[in-house]
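Hello Y.,

Per our agreement to keep a running log of every chain we model this quarter, I'm adding this entry. I've kept the format consistent with earlier entries: sequence first, then predicted structure.
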Amino acid sequence: MKGAPSLFPGKRIAPYPAEQFCRKHPPDEKGFRMSFRISWRPLLSAALLFCAAGIIPRAEAAPVSSVSRHAGPAVSPSVLSRKKMMRHRHVVAASRSVAPASAAGSAATSEPLQLAASSGNAKPGSFWNEMHVLTEDNAASSSQQRERVGVNASALGSAWPEVRVVPELDRLLGSLGGWRQRLSDYGFDFTLTYMAEGMSNAVGGRRQGFDYSHQVVMGTDFDLEKMFGLKGLSFHMLGVQRAGRSVATDYLEKTGLIQPQQDYGAGGNVLYKLVYMYFEESLLNKKLVVDVGRMPANIKFGTSYFGCYALNSIICAHPTAISVSSKWRSWPFSQWGAMARFNPGYHLYAQAGVFEASATEGGQAGFNFSFAPLGYVIPVELGWEPALGKDKLTGHYKIGGYFDTSDHPDPFTAVDGSPILISHKPARIEHQRGAWYVGADQMVWRFGPAKDQGLILFGLAGWNEGSSLSGQTQYTAGIISQGMFPSRITDAVSLFWTWQSVNRKITRLQELEYDLGYPLKNGVTLPQSNFQVLELTYTAFLTRGLKLLPDLQYIVHPDATRSYPNALEAGFRLLAQF
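Predicted structure for the entry above:
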């Protein structure tokens, strides 16, 4: 056998290091099993320990020199480290063909294997390099590695282009013995995450109680240029599975207007719900990117992954006041559409799209591909993403909006201009509606060189321009402090506040119903006006691929009324990325 089989006909790859070892030495099945057990048992034991005891350990870190600790990611290694790297370059070069380059390094290996690799007895492609990859999958990422890669605390690893593929040093299963990199070299990447949220209504609201919900995210990315030579073309597909119950409707209020659990809602009760499936073409040296396929209209408009440092869906990850009950949909709904993003340079971009105002929105499982638009949703956005000053203080600024050309009935006004409740005439039809928004986040103080390691200010505001939408206005502000503790550079403390108002037309209808003694719709007992959410979250990086977010939320005016006392929600999010 001259080499391992290729993933595609006609191609051959170099023999895997274990294959070379087995040809030179008699197979020792017991020994191989032992190495496998050594690789996985600590991981399982650690996971059980975290769940049972709730311990948040300090991530193992290799000694960090004063140079690497205070300098940016581009700082060169010390003279001594450079000599060691030159002396063992043949070993490192061999291991790079197996392990991802960003995950390689002596800090991720155990000391005995470091000695074995540096003794001069190990040869390129030897069994020791194979062991290097397996133990690397078990090792906690060091502070130096996290500084280079910038492991992010966002809870939606594959939701946005910026973090579509989970960083290699932030996966529970690591490199899978080098197979992740092999597959990526041939154009295939995948993401699998599990997110659980438990939330209790501890004080106030309707009554006290606890609910649990979860979301499994399954995503694949195909680089068709690597696979078939189709320059600049790629294909992306992602789906979710959700289950659980909502603390909002069980204990907090009746309408579900506020959702303290971001992962609860549409998309549950099916094994797999398709969220997006689209082709992406990069042109003009990646200055122009075009997406065509099925995807939510607002997945790349008006969103920020910093918003998902919070658990409440009002904050994570777009202004729900201008999107809920609209055809400017977010995941897990899907629509046929196309969009283009142009990056002229100077940290600027402009993007626009056209999406169907779908009647089916993909159906229960997301695979209803029928095309029968009620109208079209046209979003636009302009943005600036600078890195300011010598410390590279990163920021994201955006302004945008959308038009929806589908028809919708006015909730209050009849065709002749009178209140529907009085005249009993058909509702006036709104032939066009929309909304606009502005948003920004800016790092104002950098604690260290890792990505997002600093003090970040966050803000987002949205305004509706239609009478048939359930929300009217939303203002959100936040502050995020990530990596302020040198030994916990990926941990974050986040504080968010949001204020949201109900559409004035709905409020007027409810006021009229209340005055006439009619029962109010949707189960509310008083006319709705506005509500507020104050949320405090700590993102704890337990080990690579595992995060725990303890969370507190204070809800002012549950149901956007004074029917129930202000409520305190207490809970957590557990995120596992494989």
